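ARCHIVE RECORD
Type: protein–small molecule complex
Small molecule: NAP
Source of inputs: curated submission
Record status: active
Notes field left blank by submitter.
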Amino acid sequence: MFDNKVAIITGGSGGIGLAAARLLSAKGAKVLITGRRQSVLDEIASGDSNIRGFAADAGDPEAASRTVAAAIEHWGRIDIVVNNAGSGVLQPLADANAKSIADIFAVNVAGPALLAAAAIPHLERTSGAIVNISSTYGSKAASGLSLYAASKAAVEHLTRCWALELAPKGIRVNAVASGPVETAFLRERMGLSDEQIDAVKRQEREAIPLGRRGVPGDVARWIVSLADPDASWITGQVIAVDGGLAIA
Ligand SMILES: NC(=O)c1ccc[n+]([C@@H]2O[C@H](COP(=O)([O-])OP(=O)(O)OC[C@H]3O[C@@H](n4cnc5c(N)ncnc54)[C@H](OP(=O)(O)O)[C@@H]3O)[C@@H](O)[C@H]2O)c1
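STRUCTURE (tokenized, with ligand):
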């Protein structure tokens, strides 16, 4: 159980992150969720006394230390860090530019690295765990998705390297490589039109061996399982939760 445990979940104001926050809260944890819209964070926190919102953009280099400080100020400890906030871009290589590359790596790679680094002393004290969120496309090649896919490949290798580096401190580091899940990601993160979203969803449904896109809870339960102190002998792993897409 998670009684007295404290978790940080970036991008916890919607989708997979919110499902994980609600699950951890139901199991007794205190959860600090981040997102960029204060009103959304406030609304979630007002409905669950175990959840607090903290406005922070994962792509802002200052966000990590502010987020860690907020969790410590509220609850005095950190047991779990979930690097969930993600940015996406469907962009052919020919259209890539310095800004599009920097923007995606700021949120998907630099943000998680800075948050993990800032949390180390606190996680060491609690023998805590980091769970990073990757994607099927962190290991599967996809045309037009190279920047997003490469940023998630980086997340997966950071996971393995950190697991080795932090094991002597008693900190476990794992990742969940999510398959396509029904969230706001395609519209709000990828900026796709309704027509494009329909086409992507149709294509993904056909490609997923188990025949459906996921829902946030499909992925959240594995985030929580990897964060659970009972999983004390698993580190450096990337678990695919994707209806079989990665092996198709
Ligand atoms: N959905 C999928 O199909 C899918 C598939 C594979 C992997 N993933 C990965 O799973 C993770 C979560 O995806 P999701 O689809 O659940 O997310 P989502 O629904 O698109 O967004 C969840 C929340 O994240 C917040 N957020 C977005 N950008 C942020 C930033 N820069 N800093 C802080 N908060 C931010 C958003 O609130 P604000 O807008 O208010 O900030 C939103 O409420 C991501 O890392 C994504 O790459 C998703």
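CURATOR ANNOTATION: DSSP finds eight helices and seven strands in the chain.
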